[in-house]
Write a structure and sequence with these properties.
two-stranded antiparallel sheet, single chain, 215 residues, alpha/beta, 10 strands, 9 helices, Rossmann fold
């Protein structure tokens, strides 16, 4: 069993907490503001989920997931450098400026990526980028799509990526659906994929999909 801290208690964070807890992990769901002992799971009570503020969640002994808004994540996580030292930080967010309709518009870090900035700001943390090229419901139910989706991995540390790949397996991802792209600089490619999302949503509505590699 792994202890996993999740920063962000919105639909992305709670969806991941639900599935990871059901797989047997202890999850600490980090919320902003006062902690509320409320049901946040979509599939019923999961006893292995506990609640804390984000600083406490960042102290999780094994792995921390960044599920906070990408446009403010760098400032927020930079302030947790001590808590995140020596940890694996899984970054699933995308840093964008909103368009007029509230959907993702321009990238916050063109020519770079949020993941690269996080790694630079957190040199003692192993940052791994993944799950940022799909709608949030696909993260924990990849087999619901008619075409096998792809979960891309970017990170400098091989063992950290292997740990993340195992956790993806607990979320339902088959090994053949996981594509290791290389070091953290490759995250700029997957983060740029967010630019296709608003166009798909405007045409098709909020239907589950992923930007996948077909062979």
């Amino acid at each position: 069993m792994t202890t996993i801290g999740i920063l962000g208690a919105g639909r992305v964070g709670t969806n991941l907490a639900d599935k990871l807890a059901a797989a047997g992990h202890h999850v600490i769901l980090g919320q902003r503001g006062p902690v509320k002992e409320t049901e946040v799971t979509a599939q019923g009570a999961v006893p292995r989920v506990s609640f804390a503020d984000q600083r406490a969640a960042a102290r999780a002994e094994d792995v921390v997931i960044n599920a906070t808004p990408g446009d403010s994540a760098l400032d927020r996580l930079s302030g947790l450098r001590g808590e995140l030292a020596g940890k694996i930080l899984i970054d699933v967010s995308n840093a964008t400026h909103d368009a007029a309709d509230g959907l993702p518009g321009d990238l916050c870090y063109p020519g770079s990526s949020l993941a690269e900035h996080l790694q630079a700001a957190l040199p003692d943390t192993h940052v791994v980028k993944t799950l940022n090229t799909m709608l949030f419901m696909v993260m924990t139910a990849p087999d619901t799509l008619t075409t096998p989706p792809t979960a891309y991995l970017s990170g400098n540390d091989g063992p950290a990526k292997q740990t993340v790949a195992r956790l993806l397996g607990d979320l339902g991802w088959q090994p053949t659906w996981i594509e290791d792209l290389g070091d953290i600089t490759t995250a700029r490619a997957t983060e740029a994929m967010i630019l296709v999302v608003p166009h798909v949503l405007r045409r098709n509505g909020f239907q589950p999909f992923a930007v996948s590699l077909a062979r």
